[in-house]
């Protein structure tokens, strides 16, 4: 550490073992504020990005909202946007099955 540097320490309370890991299934996403300017070759991914810009901007959203708001078959285009670094996935944090994490 050097003078002037700042660090954040995030603690997660749990009723399980206290070992919190990211779950493999992700439902929450957010468009990167400083998203890189890259060419999107998949037309469905380009349409999804326009849909995200129009409906959510850089606010967090979940996959069920995309379905609810009328954009169906979005899993592959969403993965494409995540792979390009335009959209960031925020997977849930899990501990033991049946435990709670805050």
Commentary on this structure:
This protein is α+β, with helices and mostly antiparallel strands. The protein contains three helices and five strands. The chain has helices at residues 43-55, 63-68, 75-83, and strands at 21-22, 28-31, 61-62, 87-89, 93-94. A three-stranded antiparallel β-sheet has the order 3-2-4. The protein is globular, with a radius of gyration of 17 Å. The two termini are 29 Å apart. The mean pLDDT is 88.
The gist of it:
This protein has 102 residues and is of the alpha+beta class. It contains three helices and five strands.
Provide the descriptors you would attach to this structure in a database record:
102 residues, three-stranded antiparallel sheet, two-stranded antiparallel sheet
Structural class: alpha+beta
Distance between the termini: 29 Å
* Residue runs with pLDDT of under 50 for 5 or more positions: none
Helical region count?
3
What portion of the residues fall into strands of 2 or more residues? 5-15%
Order of helices and strands: EEHEHHEE
Q: Give the overall form.
A: globular
Number of strands: 5
Calculate Rg over CA atoms. Answer: 17 Å
């Amino acid at each position: 550490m050097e003078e002037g540097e700042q660090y954040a320490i995030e603690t997660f309370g749990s009723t399980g073992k206290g070992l919190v890991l990211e779950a493999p299934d992700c439902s929450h996403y957010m468009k990167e504020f400083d998203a890189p300017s890259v060419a999107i070759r998949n037309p469905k991914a380009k349409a999804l990005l326009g849909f995200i810009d129009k409906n959510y901007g850089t606010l967090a959203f979940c996959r069920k909202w995309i379905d609810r708001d009328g954009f169906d078959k979005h899993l592959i285009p969403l993965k494409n946007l995540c792979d390009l670094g335009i959209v960031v996935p925020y997977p849930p944090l899990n501990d033991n099955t049946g435990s709670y994490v805050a």
